[in-house]
Amino acid sequence: MSLKGLETVTEAATTAGKRGLPPVHLWNPPNCGEIDIVIKRNGLWFHEGTPIGREALVRLFSTVLRKDADGIYLVTPVEKMKITVEDAPFIAVRVDRVGEALVFTTNVGDMVEAGPDNAIRVEMDAATGEPRPYIHVRRGLDALIARPVFYELVEMASLRDGEAGHRHYVSSNGVWFPVGPVQ
Predict the structure, then answer these.
(1) DSSP per residue over 18-67, as a string?
(2) pTM recorded for the entire structure
(3) Ordered domains of the chain (ranges, CATH)
């Protein structure tokens, strides 16, 4: 990313804290390429093989992520740089029941209410058979739900019949999400 691109990211992220997230879905910059940034399965960000240790920088970059049909990008009004994401770009590290809502907090500080627009889904790992739970965060970007948080969801679950059959479900904002089979 060029110096101009980094300045634009910094400006966008700084104002994002005041007005919400930057409108990356509206930006179609002419300069496109790739940058050696990898978000590992465990949520750690690396640049050219070195961990990005500054949480503020990771948070800043996380505000300008966009998922397109061909991958995940860091996007500014002047540049669009493809990055590598091994699983999901975020990790849900906390869940709280707030009234009828389940509110998740991600490793970059985003707070997401599960519901019609932010679904919880559980995939099964083909190799291990273990559940891989996710929560939709924004515009096609998901957070892997950390194992301890998933255990909390299972504790909150109730048995019921639904579209996925007789399973354990959790509710949030009027929607029931299957989180696991009956053992």
Answers:
(1) HHSS--GGG---SEEEEEEEEE-TTS-EEETTEE---HHHHHHHHTTEEE
(2) 0.85
(3) 3-85 (3.10.540.10), 90-181 (2.30.270.10)
